[in-house]
Inverse folding.
């Protein structure tokens, strides 16, 4: 029996900060960009698409596109995007997007943040494993970035 999950990444972190503070860090496009390392061009509004320039060292030539699916204040943020779309010469616009979900819950001493990214099985086979691997480790790093960001 194969228990390897290839379609979804799920990570949880307890953050020693009020739920309202963690919510602001993920739902405010400017604050999101600070810890995620991207300069976004518009606020997060459900039903809109937000573009931005990556500011992460070595990847500044890349742009990102986030389709904002849902914002439920202090509880849930979801967007769609194309993970590992890192070749500036390639048009990824026809590829399916994965769904990224941030779920917040009160927890003793702060906030429980659950991150889920799903839909990797829809990514073209030649990019799928690398996209999954990269985001598996990338989200671990990003959750620590959020934790550090809200602590200061």
């Amino acid at each position: 029996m194969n228990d390897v999950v290839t379609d979804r990444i799920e990570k949880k972190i307890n953050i020693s900060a009020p739920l309202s503070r963690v919510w602001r860090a993920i739902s405010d496009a400017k604050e999101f960009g600070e810890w995620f390392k991207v300069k976004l061009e518009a606020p997060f509004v459900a039903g809109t698409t937000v573009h931005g320039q990556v500011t992460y060292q070595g990847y500044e030539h890349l742009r990102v596109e986030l389709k904002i699916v849902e914002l439920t204040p202090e509880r849930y943020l979801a967007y769609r995007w194309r993970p590992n779309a890192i070749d500036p010469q390639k048009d990824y616009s026809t590829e399916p997007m994965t769904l990224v979900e941030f779920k917040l819950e009160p927890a003793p001493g702060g906030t429980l943040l659950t991150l889920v990214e799903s839909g990797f099985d829809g990514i073209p086979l030649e990019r799928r494993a690398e996209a999954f691997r990269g985001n598996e480790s990338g989200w671990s790093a990003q959750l620590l970035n959020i934790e550090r960001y809200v602590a200061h």
Observations:
- The chain has a mean pLDDT of 95.
